[in-house]
Specification:
Blueprint (H helix, E strand, L loop, with lengths): L3 H12 L8 H13 L3 E6 L7 E5 L2 H13 L3 H8 L3 E5 L8 H11 L2 E8 L7 E7 L9 H15 L16 H15 L3 H14 L4 H9 L10
Antiparallel strand pairs: 1-2, 1-5, 3-4, 4-5
Helix pairs in contact: 1-2, 1-6, 2-6, 3-5, 6-8, 7-8, 7-9, 8-9
Length: 229
């Protein structure tokens, strides 16, 4: 099994790359692609409503796949959100019983590939999906549980402040310590403060601890995300 700490450090480090050139969702999307060994990736939210939104895609193929799911109203991303579990699809020149229109249209548009969709459910409730694809018949090099971990960590980073999500204020009350920790992560990764807070939230969700405990670990130097600049 892939070490979760190693995966998270890679995610945080990659999310800090090109910080001046791309928004957080875009950097997390590309980081997921690299970590999971995929050829392309997309992040979508509100996948079963008319307000379904694609936050980021890494390439034209992934953008086409997301557009086709919007048009046909079916596909692995929509079902990953609906059923809160992962789905895969091998695009080939054969009928697909589960997603017949999407599979046919996608095959005609982009050709053969393997598509994977994983729900983002860091707080136990799915609010979005990460989808990736590989070509040449390759499977993802990471095991399913590792891919789900990455999806949940990215989802946690993209959530708004948990107090605004109805998750309660008790565990998130010590703002001074959180602010201090954000400053340290900003120094370590070269991120703006809002992105540093997102990384702290992702770590808290990924390891099932409070934001305050994550902040304490950073302040006490038990947890670092790279050498301080």
């Amino acid at each position: 099994m892939t070490d979760r700490a190693e995966l998270f450090v890679r995610l945080a480090t990659l999310a800090a790359a090109n910080v001046t050139d791309a928004h957080l969702a875009g950097r997390l999307c590309d980081a997921s692609r690299l970590i999971l060994g995929a050829d392309g990736a997309a992040i979508t939210v509100e996948n079963t409503s008319s307000s379904r939104t694609t936050l980021s895609t890494t390439d034209r193929v992934m953008a086409t796949l997301e557009d086709l799911q919007d048009v046909t109203g079916e596909g692995p991303c929509l079902d990953a959100f609906r059923y809160s579990t992962y789905f895969t699809l091998a695009l080939e020149n054969e009928p697909n019983l589960r997603w017949p229109e999407f599979a046919r249209s996608a095959w005609q548009a982009v050709g053969g590939l393997q598509m994977y969709s994983f729900p983002m459910r860091p707080g136990g409730e799915t609010f979005g999906v990460i989808s990736v694809y590989t070509t040449d018949g390759r499977e993802l090099p990471e095991p399913i549980d590792a891919v789900q971990f990455v999806a949940d960590a990215v989802g946690a980073a993209l959530l708004r402040d948990p107090t605004a999500e109805g998750l309660g204020e008790g565990a998130w009350a010590s703002r001074a310590q959180v602010h201090h920790a954000c400053g340290m992560v900003t120094a370590q990764l070269g991120l703006p403060p809002d992105d540093a807070l997102a990384i702290l939230r992702a770590h808290a969700y990924a390891y099932n601890i409070t934001l305050v405990e994550t902040a304490r670990q950073v302040v006490d130097r038990e947890l670092t995300f790279g050498g301080e600049k």
